[in-house]
Amino acid sequence: xxxxxxxxxxxxxxxxxxxxxxxxxxxxYPNKMFLAYRVCMTNEGHPWVSxxxxxxxxxxxxxxxxxxxxxxTMGLKSFIQASLALLxxxxxxxxxxxxxxxxxxxxxxxxxxLGVQFLRTWHKDARIVYIISSQKELHGLIxxxxxxxxxxxSIWDPKKLCMDPDILLNVVEIPHGxxxxxxxxxxxxxxxxxxxKLMSMIKSKQIFPFFDIPCQGLYTSDLEEDTRxxxxxxxxxxxxxxxxxxxxxxxxxxEGVGILVVVAVNNQQLLCVLSQLEGLAQxxxxxxxxxxxxxxxxxxxxxxxxxxxxxxxxEVVENIMLTKEKVKEKLRLLGTPGSWGHITEQSxxxxxxxxxxxxxxxxxRKKHIYIPKNGQINFSCINANNINYITExxxxxxxxTEGSEMCLPKxxxx
Amino acid sequence: xxxxxxxxxxxxxxxxxxxxxxxxxxxxYPNKMFLAYRVCMTNEGHPWVSxxxxxxxxxxxxxxxxxxxxxxTMGLKSFIQASLALLxxxxxxxxxxxxxxxxxxxxxxxxxxLGVQFLRTWHKDARIVYIISSQKELHGLIxxxxxxxxxxxSIWDPKKLCMDPDILLNVVEIPHGxxxxxxxxxxxxxxxxxxxKLMSMIKSKQIFPFFDIPCQGLYTSDLEEDTRxxxxxxxxxxxxxxxxxxxxxxxxxxEGVGILVVVAVNNQQLLCVLSQLEGLAQxxxxxxxxxxxxxxxxxxxxxxxxxxxxxxxxEVVENIMLTKEKVKEKLRLLGTPGSWGHITEQSxxxxxxxxxxxxxxxxxRKKHIYIPKNGQINFSCINANNINYITExxxxxxxxTEGSEMCLPKxxxx
Lengths: 414, 414
Fold this sequence. Notes:
- The structure is a homodimer.
- The first copy, chain A, is α/β, with parallel strands linked by helices.
- In chain A, 44% of the residues lie in helices and 13% in strands.
- Chain A is built from 15 helices and 13 strands.
- In chain A, strand 3 (128-132), helix 6 and strand 4 (149-153) form a beta-alpha-beta unit.
- The radius of gyration of chain A is 22 Å and the shape is globular.
- Chains A and B meet through helix 2, helix 5, helix 6 and helix 10 of A and helix 2, helix 5, helix 6 and helix 10 of B.
């Protein structure tokens, strides 16, 4: 017999992992630091916003000619067009051949949700997904919810302290017909023959690539360079999905500015896939939000504003590289054992410190510096105010745990 | 064996029904008219925007103190609080007893999507949903996608030309444990004993109510009056979901400004339900869009702006009532057979003309006036420029089809 109340038997949901932020927030220590924010931070410790965004937002709100009507389910057409050209390059073979399209989604979670719903219906054989570890927490659940078995992988070699092309080639030894979620692998120095092997394995194993490009331009500040991998897959005639988010590289975090990009082998197949996606998006949110997309479109379609945005990306990336240099230099000056060149060899806001789990644990528990277990931090969280405390902490962690098998005494959990 | 391409076997999706707008758009007739827009239109034929919204949008974009960071998954807290108080009244028993909450969603489709995903998981017995016919096209698919059997109902009596309380009482003769999607039934004049019977049947049959309040304030311009039914259900101790949309009553169409409202029997159950909804929303879009919610919160929390908004609602509703009066009067003056009092007896933007399917077909095919098969139109689409053509068309349709069983000759479809 069913109960009288639908709600009566509903338990409190388990919070997702990713409780690092939660533990940080509960910590009363005054000098605590969180180095795992998802977004690029300013020197003042705020999420970065490109100045041209604020200017454009104001211009838009003063324009009486604009309407605020529902967007079509597929989204703002000019936003999609401009974003696809940004992602793949205006002269991309796929764009010229009219076999690339996109659906404007509510952020990158929306893009993954939409893509996964499509795969559930139209790629029924695929029930396993491999997700790059940094994105597993964010997107793994979406696959899991529709019945996928989710495995994570990492191409970071903690011994060699680099992104190892051999690990990547091992990753694609996954079972036939899987979905492979790939991030940017710009720091993974594949040789031409490595590339050829990668492509041929993905093709022969019928692996479906689902790219995740969360912040084009924030790796190297060279927009083309940052999506080189996509251009390579396009040139090899692959079909794939790509989640393109424009939140982090413009600094519009509170609006869903994502696109599920579809690259097909021809226009006919593209139209079929897009038509199915439209039906799915209709049920999910019917109309995507406009504000963020409108701002971004205004910038991408205006050469002067576009120039300002590119310049702002350049400044951000230079600033991050400078921070990395300083961290490396300070660690050397502190006589920290080990080589720290890997810090500056990695692109983008996030990078591996190259610490082991003991050292990470030491930093979190003794120094109140919150970093994920794998030691991958957001370097833009480091600034003039905290760099000394952080580098001294790292140095201490390395010195105290070096060569020892000793475990830190476990503190009682509150 | 699986195919080499995931996309290869994907067919073109069938377009949803609701192709009235599509047919209208394809019609080359210069004086064609579409009377079924979802939103309130101005006399100039544009979607209505409350003036105070434009003012507030500009103020917000000029405020340097605001940040544009990700909203929490549950959304903008102040927006939810202000909207719940608007929906149920500040002194609502449920608010005082801390047993009402909400999740900020991407519009009302997002609210239904979230609610339906919850019901799929936690109300497994329910596999049938009854949806009021005007909302079936929009929300029925969402239920259908997760395996519900969808039935539609209408409480409009085309013979008596009114919302019939007896039909409503028959509707709740649905099977035990169903979900019942109810719109505003303000025009359905239930007697006190009718209300008592309705409540008792919903209770004894363990029907789960899912309300849809798409435009509070646009029925009678009295915000409290417009949600009287919710207050009644709250007072009777029901648990329910309600999709609250704030797009149409503010005129912010291009931002997802919806809330899935949860009313539980106590705070403990509420927290459990909200925690489960948070997990679902995380997978759907992770962070809802902010702009629309921010504008609405600014208005609802500022007495002067709130006053301006209420005044704007009043003007809109008065204008619609005036239009209805004019339509009725013109139909009388044209000597149109029949009584047209039902036009002004209905509240809100949308109302039944009281035409049969022959008459509707005549209007669409001969006069290029596009109205849905059930004859329910959006009266705000009628203005000084088109009222004569429309009323003359209606009159002609009624005169030509009156008393006859004759079918209009079918035109060949292109």
